[in-house]
Specification:
Blueprint: H1 8-11, H2 16-25, E1 29-30, E2 38-43, E3 46-54, H3 62-77, H4 81-89, E4 93-101, H5 112-134, H6 146-154, E5 156-157, E6 165-172, H7 189-209, H8 228-236, E7 245-251, E8 265-269, H9 273-283, E9 292-301, E10 304-305, E11 311-321, E12 324-332, H10 334-345, E13 349-357, E14 363-373
Parallel strand pairs: 12-14
Antiparallel strand pairs: 1-2, 2-3, 4-6, 4-7, 5-6, 7-8, 9-11, 9-13, 10-11, 11-12, 13-14
Length: 375
C-alpha cells in the first residue's frame, strides 16, 4: 500500500493513547523499562514483531512514525491499512463491514444500484437487530423503537475500503444517551445490537450449512431470535453473481473488548440466499394479504395506449411501508393513469387502497381502488 493511502492530515487525528489502547486490545504487550519519547510493544505470537509508538503528536516526524505503526499492524493482522486506520480513528465504536466479493468486484467497485441496495440492506440489518434487542420477536411490523432510531442516527458511513467492495459503518458505543440504562446486562445498547446482529447471522449460516433450517425457528435460550426483518435486509444485499458472497465482519471498539466470544466474521454465499428467502417467508405473518390505504408519489409512468387510445398500465408508485420507502408497480386503468400523469407533472401526492405484495427485488400492488390526488 502506498504512502499516499495514509495521508498525514488523517494520521494526525490519531492520539498516542488511541494507538496504545488498540495495541493492548489486540494482544500486544508493552515492553517495560522503555519510557520517554516512545512506547515499545511486542506480541506473544510474533517473536520478532515490535511496535514503536510515538508518545507526543507534536513531534515533527509523528505522522511518519505513526504510518509505520499502522503498516506494521496491518501486516501483522493481514488486513488493509485503511481498515486499521479507520479502527484507530474511531476507538469508541464498533465498526461493521459489509463486503461483496466476486470476480467482478476485485477493482473495488460495483454497479451503482447494487451499491445502493447494499447500503440500504446494511441500514435495515442494523435497525432490525436493534429492534430485536428491545423486543425479540420474529417480525417487527414497525421498526420504530426509540433506542433503535437513536443508534441509527448516530452511525457513520466510513470510507469505502478496497479489496472487493466494502462499506464500513461505525456504531458509536455512546449512541444511546447514558441516562437510558441498557435493556439487559451492562453493555451499551450499540454493543448489544451489533453483538445480536453477528450472532443472528451466524445462527442462520450454521443452520443452512448443517442442512437443518428448522433450528432457526426453534426458541433457544442461548440463541438469538431470528426476525423476518433481518432476512429481508439480507435479501436486499444479495450479490448478483453466481461466484459471489456477502461477508459481514466487525471490529470491536478498543475501549470495550467483548465480554464473551462473538463471531467476528460471517460469510453468506450466493447459493444460501434462496434458503434465506424461504426462512423469510416462514417468519412473516401467514394471514392473507389485505388491502391497505397508501399515500405516496408517482415515480415512473410506463403505460401503453389501450384500444380506445387512452394511456393505461404499468406505473411505479413510491410509498412508505414499515418505516421505509418502497417502490412497487401497479397496473392502472385509464382514469387512474390520467390522475397519475397529473400528479407526476406537479410532483403531487396520491392516495389509494391496494394489496402490497413484497418480492425479493420487485414489489407489486394489486386490487388498486380509490386512486386520487391528495389536495
Amino acid at each position: 500500500m502506498s504512502r499516499e493511502s495514509l495521508p498525514n492530515d488523517i494520521l494526525k487525528l490519531i492520539k498516542p493513547q488511541q494507538v496504545r489502547s488498540y495495541a493492548l486490545a489486540k494482544g500486544w504487550r508493552r515492553v517495560p523499562g522503555v519510557n520517554g519519547d516512545i512506547a515499545l510493544f511486542d506480541h506473544p505470537q510474533g517473536q520478532w514483531d515490535q511496535l514503536i509508538v510515538p508518545m507526543d503528536e507534536s513531534f515533527d516526524d509523528y505522522s511518519k512514525r505513526l504510518r509505520e505503526v499502522v503498516e506494521n499492524l496491518a501486516n501483522f493482522e493481514s488486513r488493509g491499512v485503511i481498515e486499521v486506520l479507520n479502527d484507530l480513528i474511531t476507538p469508541d465504536a464498533d465498526i461493521l463491514r459489509y463486503r461483496v466479493a466476486s470476480s467482478a468486484t476485485g477493482r473495488g467497485s460495483v454497479p451503482l444500484l447494487d451499491g445502493i441496495r447494499l447500503l440500504e440492506g446494511a441500514y435495515k440489518s442494523i435497525l432490525a437487530a436493534a429492534c430485536s434487542v428491545v423486543n425479540p420477536v420474529v417480525h417487527h411490523p414497525r421498526m420504530s423503537w426509540v433506542e433503535a432510531q437513536q443508534l441509527l442516527n448516530a452511525c457513520h458511513l466510513g470510507q469505502t475500503e478496497r479489496g472487493s467492495f466494502t462499506a464500513s459503518i461505525s456504531c458509536p458505543l455512546r449512541a444511546v444517551p447514558q441516562d437510558q440504562p441498557p435493556l439487559s446486562g451492562n453493555a451499551p445498547f450499540a454493543r448489544q445490537a451489533v453483538s445480536l446482529l453477528m450472532r443472528s447471522l451466524t445462527r442462520i449460516v450454521h443452520a443452512v450449512e448443517a442442512d437443518d433450517v428448522r433450528r432457526v425457528f426453534e426458541a433457544e435460550d442461548t440463541e438469538p431470535t431470528i426476525s423476518a426483518n433481518l432476512c429481508d435486509a439480507l435479501l436486499q444485499m444479495q450479490p448478483p453473481d453466481d461466484d459471489s458472497l456477502l461477508a459481514v465482519s466487525v471490529s470491536w471498539a478498543t475501549t470495550l473488548p467483548p465480554s464473551q466470544p462473538i463471531p467476528n466474521t460471517v460469510r453468506i454465499r450466493r447459493e444460501y440466499f434462496p434458503i434465506i428467502e424461504d426462512i423469510h417467508k416462514n417468519l412473516r405473518p401467514s394471514k392473507a394479504p389485505e388491502a391497505s390505504l397508501f399515500v405516496g408519489y408517482v415515480d415512473t409512468l410506463n403505460g401503453q395506449p389501450g384500444e380506445d387510445g387512452r394511456m393505461r398500465g404499468d406505473t411505479t408508485l413510491a410509498v412508505m411501508y414499515e418505516d421505509d420507502m418502497r417502490k412497487a408497480r401497479a397496473e392502472l386503468n385509464a382514469d387512474d393513469y390520467q390522475t397519475a400523469i397529473h400528479a407526476h407533472s406537479v410532483a403531487g401526492a396520491v392516495r389509494f387502497k391496494a394489496v402490497l405484495h413484497l418480492g425479493r427485488r420487485t414489489h407489486r400492488f394489486t386490487d388498486v381502488s380509490g386512486f386520487a390526488r391528495v389536495q
